[in-house]
What does this fold into?
Amino acid sequence: MSENSRMDENDNDKKEVSQEKMFTLKKWNAVAMWSWDVECDTCAICRVQVMDACLRCQAESKKDFYGKQDCVVVWGECNHSFHYCCMSLWVKQNNRCPLCQQEWSIQRMGK
Amino acid sequence: MSLKPRKVDFAATWGAIRDTIRGVITLDHVPRSVWNDRFSDVYSLCVAHPEPMADRLYAETKQYLIDHVARLLNKVQEDGEAHLVKNYFTYWSQYSVGSQYLHSLYLYLNQQHIRTHKMSDAEIIYGSPDSSGGEQMEIGELALEVWQSGMIAPLGLRLVKLLLEAIDADRAQKTLPVSIEAIRGTILSFVEVQGYKKKAPLQLYQELFEEPFLNASGEHFKHDAARLLQERDVSLYMEKVKVKIEEELFRARRFLHSSSLAKVSQRCETHMVAEHLEFLYSECMNMVRGERRRDLSNMYDLLKSVQNAMQILVETVLEHIKTQGLTAVGNLQGENVHINFVENLLTVYNKYKQLIQEVFKSDQNFMGALDKACNYVINHRPNGGKCPCRSPELLAKYCDTLLKKSSKGISESEIEEKLAQSITIFKYIDDKDVFQKFYSRMLAKRLIHQQTQSMDAEETMINRLKQACGYEFTSKLHRMFTDMSVSADLNNKFQVYLKQDNIDLGINFGIYVLQAGAWPLGQAIVTPFSLPQQLEKSVQMFESFYHHRFNGRKLTWLHHLCQAELRLGHLKKSYVVTVQTFQMAILLLFESTNSLTCKEIRDTLQLNTEHFYRHAISLVESKLLWADTEELKETTVLRLNMDYSNKRTKFRITAAVQKESQQEVEQTINSVEEDRKMYLQAAIVRIMKSRKVLKHNALIQEVYAQSKVSFAPSVQLIKKCIESLIDKQYIERTAHSSEEYSYVA
It folds into this structure.
């Protein structure tokens, strides 16, 4: 304990000498991950994760698909979400949400 | 002279012609004018009036030649056996040239009379209905024919015996009884005498001479082999056999017709190599083990000529490379296992590749053996297959070491070279998917922690993998790469945004925004954490900036991957230390107080126990903090070390940087197992969807072929996947056979 108390004294000395802050944060390299803000990870139409391109896009754009997210997500007023590609094919046959059967109208699009 | 047909006195004209023939056939002097006159005489006899006398001329000439050869036969035999070959050759030389001149003299008869009566080529080859003996030949051919029946027929066997004796003498290196020229000339006369024949021109040579010669040589080779075998030394034996074959070929070139060369060497190889394979093989193992290049090269040359004889040598070499490979990578220990592993393997590979190129002339059989051996060594599972194969992991680590900053003392081109070489090993790996898992994890770490030496090198390497394995294999790696450049762009735009709105974050802020799903980071690692207030503004500003730019996205902060630079102002010198966010958060708490208990810190930061202790320990170990107990407990009091000093003013707290733990390795391997099942199930569904109905074995084969690029699935695993698809009602067994499946739409 005696050692500790000596350290305390030291500490106090220093503080008097310099009014500088003890720690200055100079730089912060942050890492974050983005994902679509959805309730369900998978697109109910093609059964692929919404983070990945939909089944069609995966098959078609194999060559120049360099991680470019062309295959975005779309939310309906009912708050259900799907691949935009999948949904635009779906509404040609049936203009209702495949999950809740409400009339489909787009609330927002992923970008 | 008139060309008009006229009456001719045959007896007188023939008399003149006969005298000239004698001169021609014995190569005597024939004056030009006489030659010309006889030439015309032949003509006038052929066109004589009222009856042409060509047939009579032909008959007389033939008779003359028969008599002439009979005379020569006597002369040849005059001096006895010892001079038989010499005399035969002398007269043959004369006669063969003479008969050519004679042929010219009878040009008119040949061209006008005989050729018109001659059989066509087709008739000669396939036989004609009236190939009676009365056929007339051109005079040159006639002369040869007469020689064959009048000279070779009675003398042939005697000559051959003498010739064989002479060749034996040559083999024994004794002086030859006759000149080489005479021997060769005599042997070749058997060919020349039938040179005009369109069908089987070598028949006489082959039957009369070649056959007995080969048989005699065969005996000789057998004896020679037996004699050489007595020394019981394979190396020596091979040397001598090689010399022997060379000698025999040389001899054959000196004496024989060129068609015999291959037969001679073939006989020699049969008797000296093929019949003693066991003896040669007996030393094979030692030769390969000792890598006796000269012996191996000899062995290769000798075995090459014998059908199916190479296999044992090939297999021995294969086994040897296997053993060498396993020794090179067995029992590796210490920090640099991965480097030793890859570089030792490459040394073995390059060594034997070179050996095969130099000694075995890049023979496909041996190249194949090298491939097989490498494949075996690289995918070898120690302990009788119980332990997993570590090659994918070690190779990924090797690449990681090369691509990381601080590869000490190696030039860029050397790194390139080594990376290119590592692809050689990569190609042999069966579990390419395992490699991919490890590689992508290490790449993620390099990118996030900014440890990449050169982005160019990274990209080149990814392209190499793509080349070897296809687009799908590297697509996630490419997406990680793209995230890096997208983030750089984002950072620039964020700075502009801040400037426009005159916002000062108080710190130098940079960020990587990663796309979920592309990075092998796992989901579970997002931990509760209350952010130090110094960072709140940055986080807020960036989130609003980001949401303004992108729609429908959410950001998850991965604090365990963030890093901060902190200036320490409480010490004698000022230091800049690079720490992880959690470490930074702990340190920042000491701004306002000197000592805190572990529990206090943890409650403030809301960190989970595991994270907290790991980072707290790292700070204690680096001596930035003092702890009052040996082991950290909830009640342990932590204090700032005010006497801390370090030689460097900039440093990094590394202790907490996660080491690749055994657990992580297991996780990786397990996740690979899951991926494989998914991959196989998808493949089965794809195949069945297009084929509708398929037999069990055919299905297994197709699945195997599809997945071979990234891993080698076991039949068991495929079966399991088929079972689970039947359970999920994707496919079913057909009614009439349990060995057949059909797709359920």
Remarks:
- The mean pLDDT of chain B is 83.
- The longest strand of chain B covers residues 508-515.
- The domain at 10-121+136-201 of chain B is CATH 1.20.1310.10 (5 helical Cullin repeat like).
